[in-house]
């Protein structure tokens, strides 16, 4: 019995030729897009929470800048992906 013939009883999916290959592999772009969306949502929620608490203007601006930069990066990546 070779290593390739061995079936792992704890594996949920079918074994692939190499890790990270195949149609179900997650790319770096997918991970980055997910992280950028998380930053957009978290910074927008933080900005809203800062608005309700009456925090300093510098904190509003910082969270707003983070939101705009992350959203802008998502837009640029989306437009470049259409080419």
Automatic annotation (TrEMBL):
Q: Basic and acidic residues: which segments have biased composition?
A: 1-10
UniProt KW keywords: Membrane, Transmembrane, Transmembrane helix
Membrane spanning segments where? 35-52, 58-79
What segment(s) does the record annotate as region Disordered? 1-25
The identity of this protein, by name, is Uncharacterized protein
The record lists the lineage as: Bacteria, Bacillati, Actinomycetota, Actinomycetes, Kitasatosporales
């Amino acid at each position: 019995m070779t290593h390739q013939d061995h079936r792992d009883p704890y594996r949920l999916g079918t074994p692939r030729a190499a890790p990270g290959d195949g149609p179900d592999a997650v790319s770096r772009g997918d991970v980055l897009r997910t992280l950028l969306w998380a930053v957009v949502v978290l910074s927008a929620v933080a900005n809203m929470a800062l608005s309700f608490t009456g925090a300093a203007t510098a904190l509003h601006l910082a969270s707003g800048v983070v939101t705009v930069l992350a959203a802008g990066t998502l837009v640029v990546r989306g437009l470049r992906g259409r080419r």
